[in-house]
From TrEMBL:
<dbReference type="Pfam" id="PF14016">
    <property type="entry name" value="DUF4232"/>
</dbReference>
<feature type="signal peptide">
    <location>
        <begin position="1"/>
        <end position="34"/>
    </location>
</feature>
<keyword id="KW-0732">Signal</keyword>
<dbReference type="InterPro" id="IPR006311">
    <property type="entry name" value="TAT_signal"/>
</dbReference>
<feature type="domain" description="DUF4232">
    <location>
        <begin position="46"/>
        <end position="177"/>
    </location>
</feature>
<dbReference type="InterPro" id="IPR025326">
    <property type="entry name" value="DUF4232"/>
</dbReference>
<protein>
    <submittedName>
        <fullName>Tat pathway signal sequence domain protein</fullName>
    </submittedName>
</protein>
Length: 183
């Protein structure tokens, strides 16, 4: 009998502690606990007006002669956190679209105020100096600016800080937008 009283006392003590915990949390005995339904809303896409865009020649280019690369930086100049996602569209000044080949996996990137995100563009560059040529035989194209767009975040006309956009074949390979700065 003594053993069963100890079990009853332990059960009563556990019940008392559980009831006290439920009272503190506002749950009454005999009622079910509801699952939490609070969800956080992700930040909206960065509008074009929230972004300042700049570009420069990449320090590290793909292996092989004749391949150029540029880094495009998106800075959130607004006072609100926003999201960038996807691959860029690219067009030469005068609205000459380039065929974009995506590389890597795209994911949403949250950019806080004054935060930065990047894409890296690689392309077949023009060979030679002022009388440049394309190894493919195509006519070289040189643009003072490119129009770089991101889904739901507008298009941005940007010049290279260190030269012109000179490329062959109207093609570019692009990484998805990322918070990891390419070199």
């Amino acid at each position: 009998m003594r053993h069963s009283n100890g079990i009853r006392r332990a059960a009563l003590a556990t019940t008392a502690v559980t009831a006290a915990a439920m009272a503190v949390t506002g749950i009454l005995p005999g009622t079910a606990m509801a699952a939490s339904t609070t969800t956080s809303t992700p930040p909206p896409a960065c509008p074009a007006s929230a972004l300042q865009v700049s570009a420069w020649q990449a320090a590290h280019r793909p292996v092989g002669t004749g391949t150029g690369a540029a880094v495009v930086q998106f800075t959130n100049v607004s006072q609100k956190t926003c999201v960038l996602k996807g691959y860029p569209t690219v067009a030469g000044a005068g609205n000459t679209p380039l065929k974009v080949t995506p590389t890597g996996k795209a994911a949403a990137v949250t950019v806080r105020p004054q935060g930065k995100a990047w894409v890296k563009l690689t392309f077949v560059q023009v060979q030679g100096e002022g009388d440049g040529y394309c190894v493919s035989g195509n006519t070289p194209a040189a643009y003072p600016t490119m129009v770089i767009g991101l889904p739901h975040s507008g298009k941005h006309q940007v010049a290279l800080k260190d030269g012109w956009w000179a490329q062959c074949d109207n093609k570019v390979t692009a990484t998805p937008v990322s918070t990891v700065k390419p070199s």
